[in-house]
Each structure stands twice: as structure tokens, then as C-alpha cells.
Protein: Lysosomal Pro-X carboxypeptidase
Organism: Desmodus rotundus
Amino acid sequence: MGCPALLLLHLAFLLPGVAIPVPPALRALSSLHLSTSLTSHRSVVRKYSIHYTEQKVDHFGFKTDKTFKQRYLIADQHWKKDGGSILFYTGNEGDIIWFCNNTGFMWDVAEELKAMLVFAEHRYYGKSLPFGANSFKDSRHLNFLTSEQALADFGELIRHLKRTIPGAENQPVIAVGGSYGGMLAAWFRMKYPHMVAGALAASAPIWQFEDIVPCGVFMEIVTTDFRKSGPNCSESIRRSWDAINRLTRTGTGLHWLSEALHLCTPLTNSQDVQHLKDWISETWVNLAMVDYPYESDFLQPLPAWPIKVVCQYLKNPHVSDTQLLQNIFQALNVYYNYSGQARCLNMSETATGSLGTLGWSYQACTEMVMPFCTNGIDDMFEPHSWDLKEFSDDCFKQWGVTPRPSWITTMYGGKNISSHTNIIFSNGDLDPWSGGGVTKNITDTLVAITIPEGAHHLDLRANNAFDPKSLLLARSLEVKYMKQWIRDFYASLRKTR
Amino acid sequence: MGCPALLLLHLAFLLPGVAIPVPPALRALSSLHLSTSLTSHRSVVRKYSIHYTEQKVDHFGFKTDKTFKQRYLIADQHWKKDGGSILFYTGNEGDIIWFCNNTGFMWDVAEELKAMLVFAEHRYYGKSLPFGANSFKDSRHLNFLTSEQALADFGELIRHLKRTIPGAENQPVIAVGGSYGGMLAAWFRMKYPHMVAGALAASAPIWQFEDIVPCGVFMEIVTTDFRKSGPNCSESIRRSWDAINRLTRTGTGLHWLSEALHLCTPLTNSQDVQHLKDWISETWVNLAMVDYPYESDFLQPLPAWPIKVVCQYLKNPHVSDTQLLQNIFQALNVYYNYSGQARCLNMSETATGSLGTLGWSYQACTEMVMPFCTNGIDDMFEPHSWDLKEFSDDCFKQWGVTPRPSWITTMYGGKNISSHTNIIFSNGDLDPWSGGGVTKNITDTLVAITIPEGAHHLDLRANNAFDPKSLLLARSLEVKYMKQWIRDFYASLRKTR
């Protein structure tokens, strides 16, 4: 079944056995200052400075004192030394500049919170490579790619900023992150509450581990998105797999399908067919994640409510196999060729190159073991059960490591987190990752915010004229909580003086 | 100045440069069941079973999946499956059986709390050696000796117990520890609050790092203990250093002093003299830690209020150098020869062999960097400033590692811990480690209990007829808090069902 390396978070069960994509190009930045980015419909100039700090490669061992340079960005146009705050983006698995440019929310609230914005790059991604070009060479070099090391980097970076930026020392820091970055934001508040007054964890599936949530919930939500976006849409997709299987039984069929889907590389064998189905599955998953209410360019350039657009081509499941696959092509074409520039569809690409697929594949094979499954009944995919043994064997072949599926729960508590405070868990109901997220208040200060019309961390994106009301409400609540944390911080500071 | 490898915690500043003692003998236990121990004045039979669990050598990296056997003890005579609890001793730097036998408090309260007692051995101590006889070979083998790895061991062990012992799953666990073990108990509650409902951190100097407390406070408390235990006592000791310096200028003097002090190995050079002064200093420090109100045998067999006994020999500081040193011998003899069996005093021994001096020396050279200093004015020792550079160089020579003095604060928060809950910090005013401890309430649930007549974690020792009233009060408060945590745990359990 499917193969995707998913947005921000990659679907681990699909990865092993699939050819590994090259890591995202590490973009060279010509200048240390003044980068510009385009966000949603508006052209916004976002000024930030780029910095590097020395980090220990291993915070948890003393055999080596080797260090590497961790990249981080600072934007302080709206920062006030008097009564201000620091919003700290806990970088996830990709180039930090891309995250910076796709987290318009922080820029939008900076003035109101008198906030300095800091975007910290996660080790082993972007330019923060502990062993340079050798970082992904083998399990020895990858040994320091863990969430614990990343959190320790954040802790050391915050101490560094407080030591070196006059005025920063006695200011509250708030962690902000989305997806895996949202998990890191939540975990950072849990493990380093002395460092951050609170955390906004957007679309953070902290419960997508072990059997905390059913393994099928993710793909069920993807399916629901398609079912609700057009008549017979999910049913058309459900039927497409068998159509592919039937069509590709012969050489002629393989050839016909390669042409019909405008594939850059024609299908030649059954392995290619599996790859095709994985790639198509990943496409539907990605669409579910970025089903935003306005034109956007996150994983790909896309129209508003892209699933609705896709579903216009998938209204009739009861057509011939060839017709169904021609419709599927039109649907894929929405995702892969919205610009109209693509000459063919490339099965080795599914999303932006700014994500570090290689690093995440390793993380999914070690700590981030997220069970996924499908049954073809509650979802629109071919049935595929979660097989830890198979997954583990594939991981060992690929990276020489054995996953530790229960470690994250030991470390971060699973469902048993009620003693922590000041974390907002926001989730969009359209987002498949909400299935592993916290969608109900745990306590007064561990709160859930749900956005019915929201896909993957929509709330972290820049303000947009097409933002649904539920999103505006969610963001205003988030700001309200953050202001409360800031007030509490200063009140407590005054008391101890 | 002084050299001691101190009780439970060793005075780091004194260690480097000093010959390293062999690690404590790893006692072979003939049976897996039924050990007996003598505690204070009473003969108490304490039944426990000895177990081993597989632990990853490296919880924080995946390069290796190597495991080792961690030892732990269980005593469940008073455990009730219905409404019971689990008291979990977070083992520190030594043989867990020795800690088990010196933590009578847990045994004394087991019935009242319907508690199973678990004593978990700290990795690299006792029989829990990740690389067997090679564990201390070099920095590569020692790389996994950190507090974070130890806490992860505890977390994995608790999951293991809850999985494998019927009835344990839905019971509250309370961490208990003294000294470094107390630090671990507190840190365990801070980092793994999902694992333990609360922690009793006895004599845990969690602030003895960086400049959180003045580096001189430790030796000032030692001095105060001696000053208050007899007229001119601390002054006699203060004068003894120069007396030693003067006497040992000549070969005759060296010889005389070796005889006067009944040293097993005579002094031959200035290095020996430094070693002598370090050894004597450590003796005074150890006496301060175990200045218990009754006869005891913790570090050494000792009379009740041993400093008072020592001070009977040190009433007159204004005597000749030789007379002063003869008096010092009488004082040392209280500590080293209370049994009257010793033929000579052995400078390579200062305390029980159950402590893992080697492991602690490494820990002090990596994470547990505790600055200590003396000025000879506020304390009775020769002046010695804290010199990180010198300390660091010595650590590198000795272990091939460089200390990271600020890491513990980054990791565990220093003074900024108010967001945590359910930790009791108990301290005895006589205990030099109380200087780096939490001796005032931080919040309603981060509470300090002080015991004016208490030395080092006196509250963890078994009930004794000579226990001062302040100790009885402290223990009853501790039990009150623990019962509250247990009630809260069950109340919260009922709510979620």
C-alpha cells in the first residue's frame, strides 16, 4: 500500500522498502540578512537575520566534545525590551527558512505580543548538519538524531540567547511548533518548563504511538475529507486500486496506464505498480493535510479547497477501469500540475524539497514509530495491517537500527500528561494527524482547540481573507492564552524580586 | 586542600590529582532471596528479593542495542493490591543493598502506605555494570554513566514492573532518594511526572551547581557543626593545618607525625602531607554528614553525636603543635577506630566500601560539577578557591573528559522549578549538603522540610528511640504528603474511569 513521505510528518509504515529520496537540497543563502518570501496571496517582506550557535553533537554523553553549528533565525522588528516576549519556533524535519516562511501566525502576532521571533533549526535538517555531508552516512553518524538531543539544543540555544541578547534574560519564552515541531513544542514545555512559559503545539500527534489511538484513524480521516468533498469521491478512489491491479496485469495495460497518467517514467513491473499505488496514496494524504480554504503553496502550489477541485473529477465510481484511471489522472494533475507547467508526473516527487525525507525516515525507524493501518472498509485504501516485525526488519536493512516503539511513551508520558501546564494543542478536523492529537481539554491549562474547517496546522499560517471564522476564533484564543502566560510570567518575576 | 570522596556525594573539588581508590567490592550474593541486615540498635530482618531487568546501555541513541542487567530489590510483605502504593528508591552511587539497608524509613512506613518497596540500583554501581569489569576502563565505556540514562532506567523499570506484576499497574509510585539519590528522585518527578505521583528528595543538593549557591557554604556548615559541638573545637582544627605544615618541614617531623597519628603508611614527602590534610578534611566532612543522635554504622561505626565525642579531644587550640596533633589523632581515632580494632589509621580509606568512588569521580568530572571553596575565615579549612580550569584539566587527565558545569542547570532548571509539583525536599541543618538544598517552600506542592538536629538524610534512616522530636515531626509530615499524593492519584484514577 501507499508509500508517502508525508508532509512535516511522514507516514512511517509506508516508507521502508521504498527507494530513499535524496535529502532536500541544502540551499545556500548568499547573505546573512534580509530574505524575502511570498506567503499565500500577499507578497510580504519578512526580515530576519540568520545566525549559528555551537551545539554539542552529544548532549548526553561525554566521550566526545565535538560540536556543530545549529542555524537559527531572528526577527526582532516588533520586539520590546520592556514587557516583551520571545516566540520560539521549535524547528522540525526540514529547512528552517521554509518553516519560517510558512509560519505567518508568528509574524502576525509579533507586534501584539511585543515579541522577538526565533526560529531554531532541528539538527540533521537544513543547514544544521552535525557531520556535514556525512551526517546520513550510517547509524554511527545518525546516532545523535533524536528528539531528546533536539530539545537539548533548544534549551542550550535559549540559554545562549538570554546570555547574549541584552533585554532578553528576563522575558518569557513561548514555544511554537506545528506537526512534529508541535510535538517538540509540547514536549519542550513538558521537559524544560523552566525554559518556556508555555507552548502552542499545532497539529501535534503526540498520541500516534503504540496503541494509544487506533492505527486506522489517520487514513479514516483522509477518507472522510474526500467523502465530504464531493459525491462518490472516496468511493471512486477506493475502486481505483483494483482498477489499477486489473489494468496492469499485461504489458499493454502497463503501457496504457503509464501514458494515461502521463508518468515521466513508464511502469515496467509489479514493483513499479506498488510504487504507483503508494505514490497515489501519498498524494491523497498530502491533499488532506493541505486542504486549505485558499490558494496556497506549501507542499505544492494548489487551489483553494483542493480536495473539492480533485473530487470534481471523481464523481462516478461506476465507470470502466480506463475511464476511472483517466479521471484519477485529472485528479492527480490538480496536485502535481496546478501551475500547468509540468510535462509529465514524476513519481519520485510528492512534496516540497524543503523537508528532510532522509532524516525523518531514520527518526521513524528509531523513536518516531507511528503505527498506521487501513482496512479498505472504514477507509478508501487497500487493506494493510500494521506489522511491527516487518517494519522493524525494513528499518534494520535500511539504517542498521531497530525501532523502539514504546520509548516515546516512556519518555513523554503518552496519555498520562495531566501534571503539565500551559500547553495549547490545536487541531483541524480535516487534518488526518488530528487523529493522534489532543482534541479535548485535559486540564484548565492543558487545552485543546479544534478548528472544524482546518487542515494541517492551518492556524500557524498567515492571516488570509478567506480564513474561516472558526480559525479566527482559534487564533484569538491562542493569543489570549499566550498573553495570560506572559502576564503570569511577569507577575511571578515581580514576586521573586 | 582536602581530598575526600564524600559519602553518597563526593566533594568534587578535592578529587582530581588524588590517587583513585579501587571501586567498591562487588559483593557476590549467594542467594537470590532472603538477606538480613542489622540496622541501628535493633536487629531487623529485612526480606527482599533480588531481581535483574534488561536495560538499553544507551536510551538516547540507536547505534547500539546493547543491553545490560540492572539489579533491583523488591520487598512486598506489606503491599496491598487494593489501594496500595509503590515506594521506589532511586538508587545512587553505590551498592543498592547497602542503600536498602540504610533506608529504614521506607521499611518503617511500608505497612501504613500498603506499599511495595522497590530499590533500583544506579547503572555503573553495585552489580549493575553495563560493561562488566570493563565499565570503568575508559571514556568510551563510561559514556553512558549520566543522570539522564539513570532516570531513563528508572522509567523503563517502572513500566516493566507495572507490566509484569499483577495489581501494580494502577498504583501510584512515589520516588524516594537521599543525597544524589534524592536529586534523582526530585529530577525523576520533574522529568517523568507520568511515572511517579511525587518524590521525597532527602538531603538533595540540587542547587550545588554553577553559582546558584556560594561555593563556600558547604564547608561553612561543616565548620559550624564543629564549632557548636564543643568549645574551641573548630578553632583547634583550623590551627591544625599550620601545625602540620610546620611539623612536616623536616624528616624527623614527618616521622614523628606518622607515629603520632598511627598511620599505616608513614609520610615521606610533601605530596603525602597534602594527602594527609585532604584525608583529615574528608574525615571532618564525613563526621558532619553522619552526626547522628545515636550510635550508627553508615560510613563507619560511630558513637551517638560523634562530633561531640571528637570535640572532647579538641578543647584547647593554644597548645604546642605536637600536642595539637596528638589531640587530632584522638579525634580521628573516634571516626576510624570506634570499634577499637584498628592497629593503624589507613589514609586510603575514609568510608564504607559500598560507595562507588570511581563512578562518582567520573560523574563529578562530567555532569555533577559542584563548585566548592574555602577561605579559612568563615570555615576551619585551609583556603582553597574554586578553579574550574584546574578542575577541568585534572578531569581530562584522569578520564579524558571535559566537565560541562552549566549542563545540569540547563537540564533540570536550577532555581527555576516552580512549575513542578509534589516534591518534598528534606534537609538537616547539620548536614553540609543542606547548603545546596531547597530549604524553603517554593510552592504549596514543592515543599521544604528542615530538621534542625538532622545530619545527612537522617529522615531516611530507621526509627530509633533517640530520634529527636523535629525528626519525628518531619517524618510524619512526609508521610502526610505521601498519603495525599496517593489519595489524589486514586481520585484522579476514578475520575478517568
